[in-house]
Design a protein that fits this description.
The chain is an alpha/beta fold. The chain has a domain at 240-343. It has helices spanning 13-26, 45-57, 68-72, 78-91, 111-131, 134-137, 149-162, 179-182, 186-201, 217-223, 232-238, 267-277, 287-292, 294-313, 317-326, 329-343; strands at 4-8, 35-38, 61-64, 97-99, 140-141, 143-144, 166-169, 205-208, 227-230, 241-242, 250-251. The strands form two sheets. A nine-stranded parallel beta sheet has the order 5-4-3-2-1-9-8-7-6. Helix 1 links the parallel strand 1 and strand 2. The protein is globular and about 55 Å long. Bound molecules: zinc ion. Residues 279, 281, 283-284, 300, 303 line the site of zinc ion.
């Protein structure tokens, strides 16, 4: 089993240009942009042009995301999204995968609200599937939502009837400003596992949405999912945070902080962690380069996520264990639930 990391890219064209140039200089063993998730509805023509060129040249596998996240933030209504997305997908038929429009439940939603959003997502995803151009149907990926087993089974039951090859799971919890980084409640992880197991039984692959702090890659792998996407490498860099393979993020730009989310790290500790994780790249050789330049942190972080995935894809479970055991307290315990499952 291999796990594919989809780098979430919704950046401005100037960022695409910098990422491409800096990544070239880093000379990674495996291209971290081999898989890209992007949101065509909210991308400029120029930025989308970069994605298309990456698909042709690198070549990157491209997944179009539905922008359900923008509904969640209140930037667009769900029904408005449906029509715009359908037109967008009809116009751009070159992607490798198409996420169907989902109405993402919030952690703060009541059970009744979650139930309504689950029903709505299933109803409109199936309708959307019928209205998609036939040539795109085999590339469609509907999204499973829900907190309960019956909600998840309800989604899968309807999606499997469509004959899709992929399903997504998107209900990992949305608490806090920094929700892309670290939120994964135990029940959500169990639900992700359930989706991957049922889907696999029918020969369908599972993609886990919007979760991708490097420390969680072990959890993701252990669910049996075939893919996940993450924007944390980019966003975290903007907050001054640095990733390392299978480790939690630390703030490199200042060293004393009372905030747990923004816990700082000394250069000495960072260097020690680099040895433990066996990470090294051109952008983390010197403190002032990593701490002083956001785009250098972006590339360093991207490489760190990619290396986290490589460790599992190469079945280096002992190496993973060694890193987790020397990492933050939280994962010293949690990884014990993931690694035995990763082996089976
Ligand atoms: Zn580095």
């Amino acid at each position: 089993m291999t796990l594919d990391f989809f780098a979430s890219m919704t950046a401005a064209p100037s960022d695409f240009r910098k990422i491409e140039a800096l990544l070239k200089d880093a000379k990674p063993k495996h291209d971290p942009l081999a898989h890209i998730l992007t949101t065509p509805l909210f991308m400029s023509k120029e930025a989308l042009g970069f994605v298309r060129r990456f698909q042709e040249e690198r070549p990157s596998e491209v997944c179009f995301d539905s922008a359900g996240y923008y509904v969640q933030m209140g930037k667009i209504g769900y029904h408005e999204l449906y029509m715009k997305l359908l037109n967008c997908y009809r116009m751009h038929r070159w992607a490798d995968r198409y996420v169907l429009p989902d109405n993402v439940p919030l952690s703060s939603d009541s059970h009744k609200q979650v139930e309504e959003k689950v029903r709505e997502t299933v109803h409109y995803s199936c309708l959307f599937f019928q209205e998609m151009p036939d040539e795109l149907k085999e590339r469609a990926m509907p999204v499973v939502h829900g907190r309960t087993r019956s909600q998840i089974e309800y989604c899968l039951e309807h999606y499997l009837k469509l004959g899709v090859k992929w399903v997504g799971f998107g209900s990992f919890g949305t608490a806090g400003k920094n929700n892309e980084a670290n939120m994964a409640t135990a029940s959500a992880v169990e639900n992700a596992r359930l989706v991957a197991q049922i889907a696999a039984h029918y020969g369908v692959k599972t993609h886990l949405f919007g979760i991708g702090a490097p420390a969680l890659v072990g959890m993701i792998y252990s669910t049996g999912a075939a893919a996940f996407d993450s924007a944390s490498w980019f966003k975290a860099a903007g907050f001054g945070q640095v990733h390392l393979p299978l480790m939690r993020s630390y703030n490199i730009t200042y060293q004393n902080s009372s905030s747990e989310l923004q816990q700082g790290i000394t250069w000495e500790d960072f260097t020690r962690f680099k040895h433990i994780t066996n990470h090294s790249c051109t952008y983390c050789q010197e403190y002032h380069i990593l701490a002083g330049h956001k785009m250098h942190r972006v590339i360093h972080n991207l490489l760190a996520v990619n290396e986290s995935v490589d460790i599992f894809n190469q079945e280096q479970f002992e190496r993973a264990r060694t890193i987790y055991e020397q990492g933050s307290l939280k994962y010293r315990e949690e990884h014990k639930q993931w690694l035995p499952l990763a082996k089976s």
